[in-house]
Design goal:
The structure is a single chain. The chain is built from 14 helices and twelve strands. By secondary structure, the chain is α/β, with parallel strands linked by helices. Helix 1 crosses helix 14 and helix 10 packs across helix 13. The termini are close together.
């Protein structure tokens, strides 16, 4: 069986959907017990590790550089017509609207934040991308042979918003997986000019309104009025905008997975303050490497974090202060790590995906 997969999201600097796709592709290639023939296609340059893995495999790779809408709606239909795959999988929200009857289309929807009008979109580029995703979903989603998502919360929301009368099937939920980093890179502390005795909180957020960065900053600054010896370190895609604005708040440039690992491990507290997410990979990263994780109290984080993380009101300006005032019993970190490894396991995700391929 031939399966075409759009892997454009695995760019040289990738985030949530890129991590999801990269880990699955790696597992599909390295443990291809089903002997499927994969046709990997991309509209841009891949990260080097994924590129080498595919090139050294028995599978096909085609890269035709083009903007996302053109690649999705013009180039991919051309490639489907050329290679005649039995199944085409789109792991990162968007897919061709005009579909070839000879292939069965599967798409993985990661979140529906682009459908949520209550959150402002910060840049023109992101507004255009959001508009494209909205059109793609509204016009094409009911034409798909199969819809998968990365959480039950997202699937329920998708069905509700699009008036799809169907119960959520656990087999269609393909959770994100944990990328385990066995060692860190302590050079990050020198880069950020952190001393060995510096206490800091760490967070990984984006610039979008739903990421709740402004509340995080305000809550930290209010906490600092009585706790002078703490810093806040924030990683995300906003470095040039925010750097050197706030005292004792350090905004990092793009950092490697090993550097991120080191920052998580040494943090006094890992914070994830989003108002909305489709999954939230930083929760499982934070919890695996640090027993002290504080996240906003929203449905998706309850699904992922269970009782292993602490929750806060995502509109409370004093949530950090209240965390330290709370004398709740600490979690069992070994139990939490085992939960992460068992639940968010790439082998389980790939098994579900291959079962879908077989069923179709």
């Amino acid at each position: 069986m031939k399966i075409l997969i759009n892997i454009s999201v695995i760019t040289q600097i990738y985030r949530g959907m890129g991590i999801f796709t990269k880990l699955i592709i790696k597992e599909l290639i390295e443990n291809n017990e089903s002997n499927y023939k994969y046709i990997f296609v991309s509209g841009n340059k891949l990260d080097q590790e994924t590129f080498q893995l595919i090139i050294n495999s028995k599978h096909t790779y085609r890269q035709i550089n083009a903007p996302l809408p053109i690649f999705d709606q013009i180039i991919i239909p051309y490639l489907i017509k050329k290679y005649k795959p039995d199944i085409s999988w789109f792991p990162a929200n968007t897919f061709p609207i005009i579909m070839n009857s000879r292939t069965k289309y599967i798409a993985t929807i990661h979140d529906l934040i682009f459908l949520m009008s209550e959150y402002k979109i910060p840049t023109i580029y992101q507004k255009i991308a959001s508009f494209y995703r909205v059109l793609n979903i509204l016009i094409g989603v009911k034409r798909l042979r199969k819809i998968t998502t990365v959480s039950k919360t997202t699937m329920r929301d998708l069905y509700s918003r699009l008036n799809i009368s169907k119960k959520v099937d656990e087999n269609d939920i393909i959770y994100n997986s944990l990328l385990i980093i066995n060692d860190g890179n302590v050079e990050i502390f020198k880069k950020l000019k952190l001393l060995s005795n510096d206490k800091y909180f760490y967070s990984i957020v984006g610039v979008g309104q739903h990421k709740n960065l402004d509340l995080l900053i305000e809550s930290f600054n209010r906490f600092k009025t009585k706790n002078k010896n703490y810093k806040l370190i924030v990683s995300g895609d906003f470095y040039s905008k925010y750097n050197n604005i706030y005292k004792d708040i350090i905004f990092t440039p793009f950092i490697s997975d090993k550097e991120k690992n080191s920052l998580i491990k040494k943090a006094e507290l890992f914070i994830f303050p989003s108002l909305a997410e489709g999954f939230g990979i930083p929760i499982i990263e934070g919890l695996f490497y640090n027993p002290k994780v504080l996240v906003s109290d929203i449905p998706i984080f309850r699904e992922i974090g269970q009782n292993y993380v602490k929750y806060f009101d995502p509109y409370d300006r004093d949530f950090i202060t209240k965390y330290f005032d709370d004398k709740a019993i600490a979690i069992n970190h070994e139990e939490a790590k085992n939960y992460i490894l068992e639940t968010f396991n790439v082998k389980k995700s790939v098994k579900k995906l291959e079962n879908i391929f077989s069923e179709l």
